[in-house]
Amino acid sequence: MMNLKRLPIGRSDFKSIIEDNMYYIDKSMLIKEIIESGDVILITRPRRFGKTLNMSMMKYFFRNDQDNKHLFEGLKIWKKKEIIEKYLNKYPVIYLTFKDAKQEDFLTMYSKIKMIIRDVYDEFNYLLNKNILSEIEKKDYMRVLGLEEIKGNTIEEKRSNEKTMFEESIKKLSEYLYRYYKQKVILLIDEYDTPIQQSYLNGYYNEFINFMGNILGNALKDNEYLEKGVLTGITRVAKESIFTGVNNLDVSTILGKLFNDKFGLTWEEVEETLRYYGLEYEKEKVIEWYNGYNFGGKEIYNPYSIINLARNKGEIKYYWINSSGNALIKQLIRQSTAEVKTKIEELIEGKEIESSIDENLVYGDLDKSTEESIWTLFLFTGYLTWTKHTGEEGEPRYSLKITNKETLQFFKKTVVDIIKETKIELESIIQNIIIGKYKEFGIKFKKIVKETLSYYDISGEEPERFYHGLILGMVVGLSKKYIVKSNRETGYGRADLILIPKEKTEPGIIFEFKKYSIDFDKDLKDSAEKGIKQIEEKGYEEEIKSYGIEKIIKVAIAFDKKNVEIIVK
Length: 569
Hints:
Shape: globular
Helix content: 40-55%
Structural class: alpha/beta
Number of domains: 3
Number of helices: 22
Distance between the termini: 82 Å
Strand order of the largest sheet: 2-3-4-1-5
Largest sheet: 5 strands, parallel
Number of strands: 15
């Protein structure tokens, strides 16, 4: 029996995989496609789909300080002799990876970014000994390395100068390398959006985005020393001025055809892998569990799961979804609207949903609503796939479904758990009214409103719907003990929501929602008092009393956008 090649589990360094003769699925023709594409290329794919390995391959292909012919001799690109002669080991390469930039606050993230740039400067420190830098430039170079004091008369001035220096550092380095080699630079930036996503998750996004945007913007826009820039990430971060004004920009997302078979595995590559490791009998299960990704109309398989399957001799398991990286998804589900949660339940049942997809995802806008952002993020991170384009020409509307059995498990477990947690939390709030803790109800209800309000459109004609829906969500778990009647005719008018206990000893509850009127109400408290008065005057208690219930609790909730006043009697 032949000795099988080792699988590159946890390895993303191209050189070590080839030199150690490990199993490698040849994606080298990406180099040709990159050369033929725009001056700046942004590639977005889900995590663990081979982005870092492909960037590493390009680094070894282009860099001019090494002879790497031996790495490419057996690969498809080797047959393209013109490309080999013109491009192989012919360019200075600046390679940055932000994949480990996952700090929890601005200052430690700022320090981490400085350290990443410092390491790159250190790699080219031989430039200090060449006669290409002026004395001032040498001092600036030393400052980036942390070996020379930052200029400035005050601490604030020094901080400001340091920030500006790091924001311009990559562009400056490309200029120095151009001067030395008389050759423009290839700039490779892996996982550029990891620190941006972390800043959003940890609440310092607004503070951080300008710093990060300026580093990238300076390096990519009108940089006369740049031959080509390639960035990878999970999302295209827009409106942060990073790509605004970048000339000749090509963007490759999972919705487009560009590079659509170069990240993740095609069925032919999966078959080849299964055949090599004697696992062809697993074909059907592999299709069911790890298939389903649609990259620009090309059927793609999850490479991380396939490689782990081969290592574990065909054992079908949840490989990719157990490899972390879904904190943002969890947060968005937790804060999402009832409509989103309903659609998630439909997806779990195997149905498809339809949504507009915003390729220019803006982290800063995620707080402001939007269902579209949630489905876009689900799609770009690989938890959903698109089946067809349903919009008019040019309209980014798609049919979406859960990708495969592996991602279905994520929805069944993680998502359902989050929805359950939220329901339990909401139900506990309503219990405060039943047991007479009215103040506690008020405090917790206002907190929930503040946390979830931004995900609803309450500027429309019926902002009452938001509040009505929130209370309805709270009482839904009480259906064993209460008859819940929403917007029913009672007495002389219509109560917004009534709870009729099945046990006569328990209290009945009436909810009335009042929108603050600038013309008729003195303040929110006045609105709430009018709500109580309305319950009493219009005889909303009649239906509850007809069930033989004696104790009735009246709750008026007055609101003006996210400001709430509650009166309980």
